[in-house]
Specification:
The protein is of the alpha/beta class and 467 residues long. 46% of the residues lie in helices and 12% in strands. The strands form two sheets. Strands 3-2-1-4-5-6-7-8 form an eight-stranded mixed β-sheet, with helices on both faces. A five-stranded parallel β-sheet has the order 10-9-11-12-13, sandwiched between helices. α2 links the parallel β1 and β2. The chain is elongated, with a radius of gyration of 28 Å. It binds nicotinamide-adenine-dinucleotide. Nicotinamide-adenine-dinucleotide binds next to α2 and α6.
Length: 467
């Protein structure tokens, strides 16, 4: 999906800046996120109205006392109330009417079916809409709740529109900006957020969100609503994965009488491969001479030592499902001849050990499909047959595929493959393959396992595996 930010030209931003004079911010929901925002935004000089249905929280904030335990917040609220920058009310609609910008920070708990309960988001959005019905000035709404992708445009906006009788862009603008603060260090995190992510419906709203959420304009990332909504979930899934991973490392190490903290002290110092964007691009399954072998060895040690390692044990299962997903996608195109561009486990090597592409090739051949292969690092002859011989012991079940490979009979040149195959599967993001895909014959399908292009081609014959 391409992001349409056509309106974000310098000219519109400058014009918007000239028309935007921020006065008062209402914050709906005085829970952990809302009340920290009240204290921190008032400390930055904004007039802030806190609104909640819970009278006890409202009374606490109105009296300049923090309703939650959070370091530094009590002082900020006390100062805010004393200097008359902070007020609080149970009348949500009035708070919206009396403000220029509304931050929505109500709860989004787990629903009975395990999904996200949007009851509070819907009710608060309706209250905003009711207030806007009686307001002539343009209003800015910033959603800070963690919500399923699509919620801002498909739930919040329609609720506001229905209750206000106004249209997005006419009476109000909307922004989704996920909150990344951590309880316990929330005040410090608000001042120095790891990032500020802004997805806005228009230039004015983007500018207002910048002014409210990024004190010094640093670290602001602009994106689409759904990417921002998804990012919040992905961030937390990643944090959960890290905690579970570190704990499994701890159990694994303890079973071997190795100090897990010494191992992880060393681990985190590698910012090239361990804590880096490396290995974090959706693509095809892992393979090669190291990853599968060492994951298996760790699983073996865990089992032998009676240690439960569910995350580590699930890695090969998940990896295999990526191969199966590619297999299903290719089969769904009902190919006559499949051309595989790249067979080694990654580009720039002739190593075939545990290449997921060999596994994929075998599954396609088992379906009775004709498969042709182009890999510039594999040439028929002595080197290829010794490569294939070296992987036979690990791939006993792939005999027919490896026989065909060893003779070199499945290998073809790139032009021949592009001429003869009706489905092209690309696993190496090389310039030659990218160029061949761009210039393919009309009607030839491409299954991209390597994300060849930054912008996903909007073509019916282009299929990405994970995008
Ligand atoms: N707590 C965190 O550390 C944290 C961090 C990042 C994001 N978030 C997200 O921010 C959102 C808020 O989280 P929280 O922990 O502050 O929630 P919370 O449950 O502590 O507070 C929510 C508040 O909203 C109020 N509320 C509910 N419906 C209302 C309505 N219609 N009008 C006015 N007030 C209403 C409730 O009374 C409550 O005080 C959630 O989506 C959460 O996932 C939380």
């Amino acid at each position: 999906m391409s992001l349409n930010f056509a309106w974000r030209t310098a000219a519109t931003l400058v014009a918007a800046e000239a028309t935007t004079q921020l006065k008062t911010i209402s914050i709906i929901g005085l829970g952990y996120v809302g009340v920290v925002s009240v204290g921190c935004l008032s400390a930055r000089g904004f007039k802030v109205i806190g609104a909640d249905l819970d009278a006890a929280k409202v009374a606490s904030v109105a009296a300049g006392r923090s309703p939650i335990v959070e370091r530094g917040l009590g002082d900020l609220l006390y100062d805010g109330v004393r200097s008359r920058r902070v007020t609080a009310t149970c009348d949500v609609a009035q708070a919206v009417r009396d403000s220029d910008v509304t931050l929505l920070a109500v709860g989004t708990p787990t629903s009975a079916d395990g999904g996200c309960d949007l009851t509070y988001v819907r009710a608060a959005s309706r209250a905003i809409g009711e207030a806007l019905a009686a307001k002539s000035a343009y209003h800015f709404v910033i959603l800070r709740c963690s919500v399923p992708p699509g919620t801002t445009i498909d739930v919040v906006v329609p609720e506001i529109e229905a209750a206000s009788g106004k249209k997005l862009g006419d009476g109000f603008g909307i922004c989704f900006s996920p909150e990344f603060l951590r309880e316990g260090t929330a005040v410090a995190d608000f001042a120095e957020p790891p990032k500020v992510v802004i997805a806005a419906s228009d230039a004015r709203t983007e500018l207002v969100a910048r002014q409210v959420l990024s004190e010094r304009g640093q670290n602001v990332l602009i994106t689409s609503m759904t990417a921002a909504e998804t990012l919040k979930y992905v961030d937390n899934i990643w944090h959960a994965t890290k905690v579970v991973f570190a704990n499994e490392v701890g159990r694994f190490c303890k079973s071997l009488d190795v100090d897990s903290h010494e191992v992880m002290r060393l681990f985190v110092q590698d910012t090239k491969l361990n804590l880096s964007p490396y290995y974090l691009r959706p693509g095809f399954a892992f393979g090669g001479s190291c990853l599968p072998k060492e994951v298996r060895a760790a699983m073996h040690i865990g089992a032998a030592n009676g240690v439960s390692l569910p995350l580590i044990d699930s890695l090969l299962v998940s990896n295999d499902s990526q191969i199966e997903e590619a297999h299903r996608l290719i089969a769904s195109l009902a190919p006559r001849v499949v051309g595989l561009l790249g067979l080694t486990f990654k580009s720039g090597t002739d190593d075939l050990r545990e290449s997921p592409m060999v596994e994929l090739m075998a599954r396609l051949q088992n379906d009775g499909l004709r498969v042709r292969v182009c890999d510039p690092n594999l040439r028929p002859g002595q080197q290829l047959s010794s490569q294939v011989r070296s992987i036979r012991h690990a791939h006993g079940d792939l005999k027919a595929t490896l026989d065909a490979l060893e003779t070199g009979g499945v290998l073809d040149t790139l032009p021949t493959i592009m001429n003869e195959c009706d489905v092209i599967v690309v696993s190496h993001a090389t310039e030659a393959f990218r160029d061949a895909v761009r210039k393919r014959r009309p009607g030839v399908h491409v299954v991209d396992l390597a994300r060849l292009f930054t912008e996903v081609p909007q073509e019916a014959t282009y299929h990405g595996l994970s995008w």
